Amino acid sequence: MATRTASKTPRPVYRCSECGWETGKWVGRCGECQAWGSVAEAAKPALRAEATPVTSRAVPIGQVAVEDAAFRSSGVGELDRVLGGGLVPGAAILLAGEPGVGKSTLLLEVAASTARTPQRVLYVTGEESASQVRLRADRTQGVHDELYLAAETDLGAVLTHIEQTRPTLLVVDSIQTIGAAGIEGVPGGVTQVKEVAAALIRVAKTRNITTVIVGHVTKDGSIAGPRVLEHLVDVVLHFEGDRNSRFRMVRAHKNRFGPVDEVGCFELGNAGILGVTDPTGLFVEQHHGTVPGTCVAVTLEGRRPLLAEVQALVSQATLDKPRRAVAGLDTSRVAMVLAVLEKHCGLQLPRQDVFVSTVGGARLHEPASDLALAAALVSSYVTQAPPAATVAIGEIGLAGELRRVRELPQRIAEAARLGFERAVVPCEPGRRPGRRTVDGLEVIEAPTVMSALHALGFTKNG
């Protein structure tokens, strides 16, 4: 009697494209990174890899030409600052930001500036019609014969446009609207975004085309789509800004060609977007005389020092539970500074409403603004204005001490350049508290927040 042998077929393996988590059955949500729609059947491994023809011969690294990767100005100085010098041929740049922040306006300005050099530019829009982009270009003086415009949502059509126009700069707005035929999922899905990005980057590298890709962001501010998208590109930029303010910032979160601690400042208006080389005036209010409840901080955005005014209002509470309202600063940081002032400076704040804000939509998350915040709070509490033309720089510790901040000489030099006369700063380790003059600016060193408030003219009795 013949025995029947059951042939064992290997069970399929499902793998998450985000983190690599594997499971024996398909699930809609990854059990490791909790990403939706990222689990798919993994391809069966090949038995062996065979040698294939090479695209280019390997040469000693000293013989590789660096001229092909030279920076080329984008035409927007503040963007060049963030990129480390400008656009690099063959580079893939991902620009992400919230809806309506001005991503398309900025890239249309870059495209128009590049076309004027003159170099050919292909602007692919998947979110707007060609006529809508033309209207914006008319408003921002961005119409040029070397700027080509295509409204496409199919990857194959986009690649055909690249073949026909052969651009130097390619702008894709946005990658979530481009779909690839034959790939599972809808445009904007994990699989589609990964395939479209890989195809565009492959063309950028082989044809030496600078490619700028616009990406959407999620509710928490992270870039929508697979995490591998950020690994594929060379540069990741985040475009930030408050809708109630015209001020915008571009930050580099990844840059293979330059630093990642630079910030570009822009002002969005009816005529387009303009670079702001000295944005301090946007964050400091011009008062007629000294005003209680205000103090100027010097914060660092990237490697650029910016002066920003902190305003505070302390008033008697009318409800059983005092109010705490914060705009432009870290709420937990404000609560900590209030606790230090109560514990170490004798302020009675449990029955006081406290309102804290910044001027011009500035966002101060750096601990170096703690001392300016404390000075503004005390100034409002005692109804006494701090000395005119004074800045306060320093991080406050829980024991009431002032801690050092990075790049203090650069901050002091910026305050002196803008005409300030006095700066209260932390005392350097090993140095006795005292006064010195730097570039015509009087620098007062204080070891504790109490001594700093005394240097600003505040006493325990008000």
TrEMBL record:
Region (Lon-protease-like) residue spans: 353-462
Key word tRNA-binding present: no
Domain of life from the UniProt record: Bacteria
One annotated GO biological process: recombinational repair
Pfam families referenced in this protein's UniProt entry, alphabetically: AAA_25, ChlI, Zn_ribbon_LapB
Domain RecA family profile: 68-217
Transferase among keywords: no
Residues where ATP binds: G97, E98, P99, G100, V101, G102, K103, S104
Keyword terms of this UniProt record: ATP-binding, DNA damage, DNA repair, DNA-binding, Hydrolase, Metal-binding, Nucleotide-binding, Stress response, Zinc, Zinc-finger
Motif RadA KNRFG motif location, chain numbering: 254-258
One function term, GO molecular function aspect: hydrolase activity
Family affiliation: Belongs to the RecA family. RadA subfamily.
Notes on the domains: The middle region has homology to RecA with ATPase motifs including the RadA KNRFG motif, while the C-terminus is homologous to Lon protease.
PANTHER family attached to this UniProt entry: DNA REPAIR PROTEIN RADA, DNA REPAIR PROTEIN RADA-LIKE PROTEIN
Function: Plays a role in repairing double-strand DNA breaks, probably involving stabilizing or processing branched DNA or blocked replication forks.
Name used for this protein in its record: DNA repair protein RadA
Gene designation per UniProt: radA
